[in-house]
Write a structure and sequence with these properties.
single chain, alpha/beta, TIM Barrel, 9-stranded parallel β-sheet, 3-stranded antiparallel β-sheet, about 35% helix, about 15% strand, glycosidase, Glyco_hydro_1_AS, hydrolase, Glyco_hydro_1
Amino acid sequence: MQLSKDFLWGGATADFQCEGGCDEGGRGLSTHDFETNGSQENPRAITYRLPDGTTDRARSSFFFAEPLPEGAVPEMLDGEYYPSLKGVDHYHHWREDLELLAGMGMNVYRFSICWSRVFPTGFEEEPNEEGLAFYEQIIDTCLELGMQPLVTIHHDELPVVVAERLDGWSSRETIELYLRYCRALFARFGGKVKYWLTFNEINAVRGYASCGTHQCDNNTHYNAVHNMFLASARAVALGHEMMPGSMFGAMFAFSAFYPATCKPEDVFAQMQKRRQAYYYIDTMARGHYPAYAQEIWREKGIDLRWEKGDEGTLAAGPLDFVSISYYRSNTISADSPRAKEVMGGEGNPYLENTPWGWPIDPLGLRYVLNELADRYEKPIFVVENGMGAIDEADENGYVEDDYRIDYLREHFKCMMQAILEDGVNCFGYTMWGPFDLISLSTGEMAKRYGFIYVDMDDMGAGTLRRTPKKSYYWMKRVIESQGASLWEE
């Protein structure tokens, strides 16, 4: 069993988790810069100062984000560690990192552009040349090394000035600023980049760090997402106009969801749960809200701020392909208090978990690829997948990560079966964090995903030396054989 030669194998990163260089190249502050480190037991937070001078923190983790009080201004406080300021110093190691990835045989590299590196406040009339030049050298080097650049335009962050002046994506003015940003990227990189993602995990973002909104209630959130939908559609239309032949997707966090039992109530709860994920993909891939959106708005008390022309805007910019992150599966019970959460669910007694409690379900990847292919009839790109684990490096930085090899082997096999046996049009795969980087969910370095070990601890100490792990050489063989080696082991 072997994939075609044009299948895209690669790795994926986000600027605020790896880049660093936050005070270099004219970069402005970004919302994630104010996010502390954390752990599985201690959630990450946005730190802020109130008008009376007191300071505090608000939880910032995805859909569990807490609101910022009225008058709160984000501030970096003494005694806190802010991982995004340093990342893993990709800003100064980018060439080494790219050469290591190309050395595995990768032919695509997904990375995000930091909006505030290109437009430091978000309000400038012209882009920051140093920022554009930084990303252009990454793109040019990718192409020289035989890797297609896959660019994420908005990866869960925005300039902090946009968040403070406009309340981020709560405002339609943010759409116009985003389109100015897109236009600058398309004008500069249009002849070099074919694949673009307008937004990352748009179904999982909420609150200040990801959306720039000070409040996290459902009405604020769904209206902010509506503005993102409009921004994405207009960006797709603009991109097709400026860059004929370009392909646009948006990335969705997509787990497999199973009914906890065959009890009809559990099966129906699973259907309702799945619709909460479909809500985002249906709207962006089809160019209109699904009929069941009305029920979601009613149930959650959403007063969606429609304006004349919104319907036409959505229809004019549907996605060319669907891209997903896949890490886990969940079970859904009608009796569970988490059944109504967008991403919530229960574990599965038939599956093992990662050290961070995520069920390991390779067959679930095949399941969701078929599910998406049947529903949307569009090409699919798996742009995140992988296993966060505690790696023990020897004195040379080498890691015997057989657990990662086992995880990826089974997921790759299921992906290949979906493509070659089930007929799914999946044209690429990028593993999350091909070199170790900061965990988004916990802010740790201890939660490592990479094929390449980066010598840095949770507080940013270390040599930053890059060392290929055992999985690096294993993955090189997988790519060289277009997956055939998986069936020989």
